[in-house]
Amino acid sequence: MSDHDVLIVGGGPVGTALALALRGSGLALGLLEPRAPRAAADSRPIALSHGSRLILERLGVWEGLAGATPIERIHVSQRGGFGRVGLDARQAHVPALGYVLDYGELAGALARALDAGGGAHLIRATAGALEGRTEEAVVRFADGSGRASAALLAVADGGALPVARQRVRDYGQAAVTARVSCSVPHRNVAYERFTPEGPLALLPTGRALALVWTTAPERARQLCELDEAGFLAELQKGFGSRLGSFTAAGTRSWYPLALKIADHIAEPRTVVVGNAAQTLHPVAGQGLNLGLRDAWELASLVRHCDRVRIGAPELVRAYTARRRLDRGGGIFITDTLVRLFSNESTALKLARGAGLAALGAFPPARDFVARRMIFGARG
């Protein structure tokens, strides 16, 4: 007999959300995570869609995220070219298009909710080997101290041992993140500005802005090494004066960007969710939102499955089929945006401008895009 009905590998936001979504189901749940939840000091900015807010409300977590700043409008443009489009929460009939907060705040709130309600057996160990068998899935611990088994293994840790072949596309880009201030109030508007180096996003967070600036890795390193005045001057050149002058910048960091796709998101008694299934470019902020939908859909299938059929081939196939459209759409949109907009082709610049102008002038198309960004393929 297996140790658990469902064993989740990875205690980040997606893995913890999956555990919370299955709590109260009467199932034996396990959560394998070697470290305590990331502290609230992890200030990487994340943008949660309104659809993700609805999931977090159902999990009883949203009320604890007091620091989330709503995005009421999104302004999309390209540097040095015509064409722009504005997305508005009122036109999309939602209170906000999204919400900006720190990764650490979300991870901490999810972990506290799980600790307060219990329901999952916490295993402090690192996965050393994963085995999907006909009768059960097994995780062997990296230090050789033991193993754990489950009827269904859900891998939610993008850094865990791969359970499927991966396709990787190195974008040759890196993202610089920082908190910045400017002389003009942001008024809860998020900006996505496409440049030849890559997209430059400014997201409202409190009274400041969270910057996610895509550029070449060497330039990213150089930007992080500049003094504050030098960095602000470069940002001003990159973004322009729509928000007046940039006046302050906090601690900067950078990380390389690549697209990673698991060729098969399900194996015998094993499924992968979140970053373990797909790691996306940060453009349009789809990665974590897609992962939360992965967790919610999997939990729904498991809850409506007879206990003896958890992990059976039909459940694994059903999860794969149910996530195919949403997952494929998220991958396609982000990858296409990066490849179409991260270049200096004159012909493409004109085509991009025409496309943005047409999207802004045709409300049904604009609202279709907004709802897909908010709710995914089922929006």
Question: How would you summarize the topology of this molecule?
Answer:
Layout (H helix, E strand, L loop, with lengths): L3 E6 L3 H10 L6 E4 L12 E5 H9 L10 E3 L1 E6 L5 E5 L9 E5 H15 L2 E4 L3 E6 L4 E5 L5 E9 L10 E17 L6 E7 L2 E8 L2 E8 L1 H9 L2 H12 L6 E4 L3 E10 L3 E2 L2 E3 L5 E2 L7 H17 L9 H29 L4 H16 L1 H13 L4
Helix pairs in contact: 1-3, 1-6, 6-7
Strands, count: 20
What is the average per-residue confidence, as pLDDT, rounded to a whole number? 89
User: What is the CATH architecture annotation of the domain at 4-48 and 101-166 and 260-341?
Assistant: 3-Layer(bba) Sandwich
- By CATH's scheme, which homologous superfamily of the domain at 4-48 and 101-166 and 260-341 applies? FAD/NAD(P)-binding domain
Tell me roughly what share of residues is in helical segments: 25-40%
Q: What's the number of helices? A: 9
CATH class membership of the domain at 4-48 and 101-166 and 260-341: Alpha Beta
Strand content is 25-35%
Could you say what the CATH topology of the domain at 4-48 and 101-166 and 260-341 is called? FAD/NAD(P)-binding domain
Largest sheet: 9 strands, mixed
Output the structural class. alpha+beta
> Which outline best applies?
globular
Unreliable parts: none
Span of the ends, CA to CA: 40 Å
Q: What value does the Rg take, in angstroms?
A: 21 Å
Order of helix and strand elements from N to C terminus: EHEEHEEEEHEEEEEEEEHHEEEEEHHHH
